[in-house]
Every structure is written in C-alpha cells, then in structure tokens.
Amino acid sequence: MADTETKGRLILVRHGESEGNRDRTFTQHVDVPLTELGREQARAAGERIAKLFKPTRIFASPYQRARNTAEIIGERVNLPVEIEPDLREQSFGVFAGKPYESMLSDAAFHEGPRWSWRPKEGESLVDVYERAVPAFERIARAWVGHDVVVVSHGGVMLALCAFVGGGWEKQLIAPNAGIVVVEHDGKTYGLPIRVDMDREVY
User: Is 89 a catalytic residue?
Assistant: First the structure.
C-alpha cells in the first residue's frame, strides 16, 4: 500500500518518435509503431528514470507507440506495464492520416484557442482533459508516496500539465520521450517540472 504520509511523484513520459511523428502526419490507427529513433529515445528515458527515481508502477495509453515506450522503460526498471484506456491520444477525426498542416484548412481551427478546436468526428484538447484528468487523479490517489511512471501522448500530457499548472496558456507540448514530473499528496499537485539539464518549468 502507498505511504499516505509522504508525497508521491507522477513521472509523465511522452512516447518516443512514432512513424506518424517522423512523417508529420496525424496517426490513422492505434497501432502505429515507434521508429528506431523512437526506441532509442525510450531507452534513454528508461535510463534517466532509473537514475533519478524509484518507480513502483508503470501505466500507459493502450496505443502501440505508448505501450512500446512503456515496455522499454519497464525493461530497464523491471516493472510490468498496466494499461489505462483514458490516457489515449486526442482523436483528430477526419484529419487522421493527413499531414499536420492540413488542420490549417479547417476554418474552426482559427476561431478560438487551440485547446478548444474540435476537428470533425474528433476530440478537442478540452475533451482529452475531461477523460484523462480523472485517470491521472485515480492513479495519484492510489499511489501516494510512490514514484509512478505514466506514458502517454503529447496532447494528453498537455492536458495534464494544464490541470496541475492552472491553465492552458503557458503549457508546451513535450518532445518525444520527454519527461515531466508532478509531485502530489493525492489531493494537491505541484507545478509540472521538465526533467532536463535546466529543469525548466512548463
């Protein structure tokens, strides 16, 4: 059981580079794999996590690129991967399989803030927030006092950082295999901290 008298850390990790990232296209299906660079990025993230933290659980999105990243990290820290369906990436609806730049052709994209844009047949970042944040909080409450790795996607991490950071405006998309740490006591959360050389706050 978690030690409820100490803080825990949620170690948020974006998946390594996928074929969609490499080709700069919105993914068309859930089983888009990592590239070789993506696997190298995942291994580097695993090494960094093993050096800086003592994880006791790994949770991941069900999408292959996140699962594979989590599995590579899990091999390094000797932990199995547990799937959390609500950590899946934002659905881009009719833009699936199209270049990133294609969203600029959607008039609705220009009508408000990026997080409110909902592509036809897809989700907005606000929609992602509404399903991912409860999963994030469930994990935090269950594992107070533990280091827990949570592997997901750029949009999901952006939504989670907006939640703990108090708004969308200053949040940035994490790079592939980027790591963001959130301290918590199961009820309250610290600001998201990026794990890199300068310890920059998102």
Answer: yes
Our answer to whether residue 121 is catalytic in this structure is no
What pTM, to 2 d.p., does this model score?
A: 0.92
Query: 3-class SS at 102?
Result: helix
Domains and CATH numbers, the chain: 8-194 (3.40.50.1240)
Report pLDDT digits (tens) over 132-190: 999 999 999 999 999 999 999 999 999 999 999 999 998 889 999 999 999 999 999 99
- Among residues 84, 89, 123, 153, which one is catalytic? 89
| Of 70, 68, 84, 198, residue with least CA distance to 139 | 84
Segments in 61-184 forming alpha helices (H): 64-77, 125-142, 154-165
CB 176 within 8 A of CB 15: yes
